[in-house]
Design brief:
Layout lengths: L4 E6 L2 E6 L9 H16 L5 E6 L22 H10 L3 E6 L2 E3 L1 H7 L3 E5 L3 E3 L13 H9 L1 H10 L3 E2 H7 L4 E3 L3 H14 L19 H9 L8 H14 L2 H16 L2 H15 L18 E4 L3 H12 L4 E4 L3 H20 L5 H9 L1 E4 L10 E4 L5 H14 L5 E4 L6 H6 L7 E6 L8 E5 L6 H13 L3 E5 L7 H18 L3 H11 L5 H8 L1 H14 L9 H7 L12 E2 L8 E2 L1 H14 L8 H22 L5 H12 L8 H8 L1 H15 L8 H9 L7
Parallel strand pairs: 2-3, 3-4, 4-6, 5-7, 6-9, 10-11, 10-13, 11-12, 13-14, 14-15, 16-17
Antiparallel strand pairs: 1-2, 7-8, 15-16, 18-19
The structure holds (S)-3-Hydroxyhexanoyl-CoA.
Length: 695
Amino acid sequence: MSDVVSYQREDEIGLIVVDNPPVNALGHAVRQGLLDALDQGLADDGARALVVMGAGRTFPAGADIREFGQTPKEPALPDVINRLEDSGKLLIAAVHGTALGGGMEITLGCDYRLALDSARMGLPEVNLGLLPGAGGTQRLPRLIGAQAALDAIVGGKPMKAGQLEKMGVVDKVVSGDLKAEAIAYARQLADDNAPRRKVSELTVDKESDTVFSDYEQSIARKKRGFLAPFHCIKAVQAATELDFAAGQKRERELFTELLNSPQSAAQRHVFFAEREVGKVPGIAKDTPRREIAQVGIIGAGTMGGGIAMNFLSAGIPVKMLEMKQEALDKGVALIRKNYEATAKKGRMTSEQVERCMSLLTSTLSYDDLSDVDLVIEAVFENMKVKKEVFGELDRVTKPGAILATNTSTLDVNEIAQSTRRPEDVIGMHFFSPANVMKLLENVRGEATSDEVIATVMDLSKRIGKVGVLVGVCYGFVGNRILHKRQAQAISLVNEGATPAQVDKVLYDFGLPMGPFAMADLAGLDVGWRIREGLRESDPANAPERNWLDALAEQERWGQKTGGGVFDYAEGDRTPRPSEVTAAEIEKYRAEQGIETREISDTEILERCLYVMVNEGAKILEEGVAMRPLDIDIVWIYGYGFPVYQGGPMFWADSIGLDKVHAKIQQFHDETGHDDWKPAPLLERLAKEGKRFADL
Ligand code: 3H9
């Protein structure tokens, strides 16, 4: 008898129930248990039909991802599903929760599919750098045609029961008690002598001869660099060209290739890392949380408005405060405009737009914030201004209200000291555009209470963000590492590379854009103003004037002015090399007496990325990031580090820390620059032959 799969008969129907919490993943014991339970069901003469279902919260949500990378153990899932399909009895899948991956593939091995109206099904393997490897790429196209199967398999998004019924995947949608419904349905099918329906015996509907090449083209840009989506297409194509057995063999080959690829290892790392970042040592399930029913936001600029949208979209009322009515009106209008643009793209209904807008109120008076549970300040990045705001907030907000700052660089501890309740103060650093970017750096101050941390981490999820808890330092985790990379990018150009060459290397690595296109997007004026400020206030320590300052002085501020490091044609965001920039770089090199040299792409990649890894190691040592995976997630969700590279720290592990360290040491020997001083943690791990993942 299996611990994780049971067989019992009720009302002439045999029930095979998977009970392997939390998500009924199809690990070895479940696969063996399924076969044993099937044998029992087949031998049970009293059972007229068999139902497969999951106990607890869901139908199996897929293969056990933790088993990937280990030696595979028989029986393999494709064989289990083939056995189910070949069994002599009528087989019905009864789905609730999320039947994903191998779970959905089990349902495709059944004759009939019944689902609760709240259930969802899908083949999300592509998100793990894989393809459905238990017959999914062969059975789904047979059931719904090649085009729809491509959408489901390459898209990887779960679909609702109602939609699946329309597509012909689900035969019946029910509500209420799934077990009772499943037994009734199975009895009815048995009474009606319903035919067996082996999906593997259907023929595939291929809509056109170019369906696969068209599909490849349509995803070429969006899936640039990824292996799995293109393997998924090949597997579905095999379903249209080969018989089922040969197609399944081809699916297996493609699946194995992906499983053994560095990309899938990276994507699986990201899957677990994304869940791990939510777990904060010292914060338990029973750590008290505060209720957040209403939020105040200070500042109705682009950032404040973007932040507000997260809460409105999640159904949480927002009060937005500004100093002047005009700024407030502008902010509210911008939020509406953004929502309406989303509605125009069909991603929201006009009722939803109105519902979100109805949750927004605005005010010019701090006193109106006396009843909010959380305030997020998104004003000008200046300590004096922030302190004044927090002083006001301390005065007006109720006891227990959480006071958050969206600062990206300033000291959260100092801000907290301007209140009488530093334990209620925390950083919530949103990334621009704040309504889109998934990352939220939650910054723990020295005094921030566990209760406040727990509440804000939970809230991050509630508003659809991935919250990463970090400590206080200049730039926190993301921007501190970014600054080091930007400095290398500039040095590389000073020494002989072109901005376009540097950008191309990082783009080809998989980043959405290179450092200079990113600077143009953010605006060259931002950094320039900060440097100018320093030159005025602290000339001795201020950075030297360089060619980026020269560009900013000419009001070449980037995309918004039609030119920055690159030129931009009107209405086109494609960066084009600029003669003005080239001349300024030449001038700078001449002034500095720099003799240029040929710079290889390898050097660009190593210098831009290894400096990030070194800084990451320093951040870990200082405790600013709790774990390497926190840094990986910050970079994936905040800066578009390619998921298939796993994040900077995972990537460094995959290169080998001894190699990374040796190169960093070499750069330090050559330049003597502090940024290249190997982090002691990196040095130690490299010596011990360990990885960041071993910490
Ligand atoms: C596959 O099926 C391949 C086949 O085609 C071919 C095979 C030959 N395995 O996300 P949550 C853990 S590939 C192992 O926080 P939620 C998760 O780590 C698979 N563990 O809950 C977490 O653990 P912990 C295709 C898994 O309610 C806990 O369960 N399937 C798996 O927010 C709770 O998870 C997928 O890709 C797994 N398959 O969301 C589905 N799934 O508590 C992946 C979850 O220690 N899973 N865990 O942190 C999901 O998308 C979500 O977990 C799900 C629940 C929607 C199910």
